[in-house]
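Hi X.,

You mentioned you wanted examples for the new student's onboarding notes, showing what a folding record looks like when two proteins sit in one file. Here is a clean example. The first protein comes first, with its sequence line followed by its structure tokens.
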Amino acid sequence: MINNEFYDDLQDEWYTRIDHPIALLRAENAVRIPWIAEKLQGSSKQILDVGCGAGFLTNALSELGHEVTGIDLSRSSLEIAKKFDPTKKTSYQIANAYSLPFKDGSFDAVCAMDILEHVDEPGLVIAEAARVLKPGGQFFFHTFNRNWQSYFLIIKGVEWFVKNTPKNMHVYPLFIKPVEMRSLCHLHLLEVTELLGFQPKMDPKVLLKLLLTRKVPSNFTFVFSKNLTTGYCGIARKKPGRK
């Protein structure tokens, strides 16, 4: 079974800890946030961040002037998100991604970053995201491909090389192949318009420091690529004129 409980215990360490995989999540967000921000070009948008955790993405988008709502099942994570929100304008609430407490067509964009591989029914999350999106709205997502390479890099590699990795932080059967992701989106009237590979930057010096210390260096980073073998990000657009 997937272990989602460890997030409850992180408190302020969401933002500070380097001897824990949460530091990898911060490094991922440092690259993904500018990408999402660029794709949201234009006036202020109404955005929902599903599985927002401690608010890395939510708070960053609020700072850019968007009207952002973050939902999660972890009360303690939401408290940290509020604490680290410099705008104090982000709306945070406890809610289940399988049954979002919002009306149809409420948001210009919905983000599901690092949540689809943490649930048993990703199709239900996607269905709800599609429901609350306005026609023409954008669905942003990040998840992991399912193959032997992703198993060894995302699961075993993190367990071996990053201290304090929680047991079952990721479980292989919940990874999602890109063809499956496209199919799930299509089923709920979302047209995938962009898929990008997303993986660690293979800088030998940085990787060596990680291997020797089992701590995530401050200059550890991720890059986009054409290779979808391990992790990947994407955008799907809700078909206009359809619920």
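Then the second protein repeats the pattern, sequence line and then tokens:
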Amino acid sequence: MTDSLRQNARFALRQLRLNPGFSLVAIACLALGSGANTAIFQLIDSIRLRTLPVQSPQQLVELHIDDMTHARGGTLRDNSVTNPLWEQIRARGQDLFAGTFAWADEGLNVAPAGELNEVAALWVSGDFFRVLGVQPILGRVFTAADDRRGCGLAPGAVISYGYWRSELAGDPQAIGRSIVIAEHRVAVVGVTPPGFFGLEVGRTFDVALPICSQPALGQGRLDSGTTWWLTVMGRMQPGMKPERLAPVLRGLSGGIFEATLPAGYPSDSVKPYLAMKLLMAPAGAGISRLRDQYSTPLNLLLAIAGLVLLIACANLANLMLARASARRREMAVRLALGASRARLIQQLMLEGLLLAVAGVALGLLLAQALSRMLVSFVLNPDDPTFLDLRPDARVFAFTALVAVLTCILFSLAPALQAARTDPGNALKSGGRAIASPRDRFRLRRLLVASQVALSLVLLVGALLFVRSLGNLLAIDPGFDPRGIVIADVNFSGLHLAAGRTGAFHQELIQRVRAIPGVQSAAEASVVPLSGAAWNNRMWMDGSDFEHARVALRSMVGSGYFRTLRTPLVAGREFDDRDSQSQRKVAIVNQAFARQLAAGRNPVGLRFWIETTPFEPQTVYEIVGLVKDTKYRNLREDFEPVVYTPLWPRTLQSSDARIMIRSGLGPGTLVSAARAGLAAISPSLGYSFHVFDSWIQDSLLPERLMARLSLLFGALAAALTACGLYGVISYTVARRTGEIGVRMALGASRGNVAVLILSETAVVVALGLGAGAILSLGAGRSAAALLFGVKSYDPLILIAAGMAIAMVAALASYLPARRASNLNPAIALREE
């Protein structure tokens, strides 16, 4: 058995070497198909499947709240808790877990002044590194003793391996050196190993600080029961099952929430707060915003790439069938000399396996470049993405599985057909086909029809995603983002007295407006389409809380609507008289008027905003009505939005977010704004974002789907065209004698061309019919990713069908023309 396998392998290699054209085409097709699949799987593996690079990651669980609906205050990240809650969980959960820890990420400035230079920082509890089993390569990591109230900056900072190499040049004497964070000097106490990137897949960290150091850096979250910012995780005891631990954790929830109820919590939210429960979820793979955002698109792209690979396999199966037909005499001789049919099947399967291994191996190399290209598609320049794209065991196993499946898919049918060869008939025919054309080409036509069907599915999907992206780009968000730069300014370095903060906000906006080339500028607490949100329940005066509805909020400075070019529909904008008055005023959008004011002109009406942790129940008078604008993202419907004034007398923050409009180009405007802010004070910190680019970056998932689905659709159409061309050309070559007889009996060149094209039309029509049915089902699976287009859009289906039909017509034109130009005498002489 081993000898025969070795002989067949040598013979298969010789056959492939003697047919370099066929071998190169087959390997190239497989490399493209398998490379695309492997690249996408590699990205899925990096984002979803890999476990954290820590000790026994399968024992890690995340503790989160069952329902955050009534979590009043500010939520800085999903599934988070307040610091008082974390301290209660730590104290009461000591007997439940082998260890617990809390952490949060934040960008912290390391530039002494001028343009902000942020590092990715982690706030970590004292047991963070111990519970994870992370040991330093230099110095030490934090312990529980480091994370105590009032610790200041004494515990120092633990830095990542990457930050140590890039910023400290890998200095082996780095322990004890100081780095500047938020204008404070912090000593380096340890360096983490190179494989540890943190707990969020898709992001890495530079610096870790203990949670107790927050007050020393000007943060005030330790005692806040309304700032939800910490992620809590625990390590289960060895042998403990989550289903046994979960009920105990729920039982502790009542005491934890009762002990942490914030003073002054809105009365209507007290009961829901006390009813909150703590749940657990596996955390061995960490958490990831990237995973939440791209899991569905990547799964769909893997399915699309799989269809492309199927088309490539169908193409190769056709080529193998053609080769098997051409080698009928060879197979007949081998059978006549005593070779078994199993031996022939083994030989042809080995040839296919060699092609598959070569193609998939090349595809694995190609996948490395493709996966990096995919990462560039999902990369947001303002939010650097870190992914470990090194192939692991799962990637190699997936690649091996692809090799085996492709071998079976394109080799099995040709091998079985060759093994069914009748030696007597094959030798008597001298290698000529003796079966009818219908029998001879039925399988090959079926393969081409399947290619057409799958190509139609892919092209329909591509057009749906392109149309969806086009719809998003064509949306009128209610404002004009072109020509706007967003400046984030921090002036904590000025160390202003509390009473001077509001006045400096006013002075700052006036100085920005005076920068040459600036047309208008305004402050805003929430920039549209930034993903940030602030909402409260509101009701019209004369109604009651039972009829309240949730509306979005934003605090804006004077000139906000003029800067955004959002039209004022009725009433007026905020002005100086409002800042001197004690009455509360607001401007609302059209959706507010429709949903809360029953469609009336709301100017002059009053409404109430519920009690919040920061403000009692308050009545506002509406002084203006503006056009609807998008708030969080472009996909959302227009929702009720309330704008309240950002008056200097109410401002206590040392941060300002200013929207600047100019007729200058973005680069010129940023340079001018940078110079203008530096002239105000060298102690200012600032960073800039081009508003239009910011919005474009928010559509990265949609761009990924549109670009790659269109690329795969075009690749599928090209493979289908090649397959159709090959089958029709082979048909013409094998029917040369028949065509010669037809022409000798009076058939015109046009009749011959129509004969060939009509057979092509039948195959294409069958494929388009099957593809149309498949497209309806495939479209429904992608419906959640579409915007403004139905998954069964008939116009897109017709357009895709026409495109495939045109490709098919071009692919069959040359063989049909060649057939019509045959010389009957020469054709009959060859026959």
